[in-house]
Amino acid sequence: MAKGNSDLGEQALSKAVEMGLSTQLDAAETLEAEIHANPGTLVQGEVESADIQGRGLVIKDDLRTEELKVKTDGMAIDPIKAAFGNIELTRPTNAAMAAKLTQADIERACNSDYIQRKLQKLEVKLDGQPVQLKIQQVQVSLPGDGRVAIATDVQQLESGEQQHVAFSATPAVDAQGYQLMLNDVQMDPNNTSEPLTQSLLAAANDLLDLRQFSLSGMTFQVEHIDVQKETMTLQAKAHLEKFPGS
To answer: Which of 90, 121, 149, 244 allows an S-S link to 168, with CB 3.0 to 4.6 Å?
Structure first.
């Protein structure tokens, strides 16, 4: 529910924002929006900012964030449509975002149907030859020191040979803020094929494209990744052409 506010216009808009966002989510433990506006300019559709906070937000069935915080710049909305609960931007706006993911959230995403379909389509070459792979359950841990550890069993479909892929790396983003990179890759002692692991990493560019996780009407650029023991926080700036759910 929207937080307490003495201005009924702000309350109504806050509720409309919550309802619009909820249509983009598969699940949410909590979702709160708070609109800040001057009553004198609100009737003209001018909004000073919007603060949005959520916990346990899920999109695409299995992509979950433990916490999400969004603060927008000033917004211009259609006041007539807003009166009927439809938040329609009349000009684009920007926002700052912070998303916290747990170790379990990341592992759940890696094993979702959405990501697994992409994993099975990876074009991987081994010794210069293309190979078809079946990737089993992916295990993810955040041991601390800014690193992420990944392990899975991989079967080569033609030969039936199975390898254990296990490594750790330091995640970062490229200069554009769209692509996740895995730096300083270190093989785990239990890894049975470093060449296969390197081939998988080389083929995973599309999988690590962060733009695929945007909501409708929103693009974002990740500016910083903070990896702690069992949690990862992404800080990003977003550009909204339209309000999600409008």
So the answer is: 149
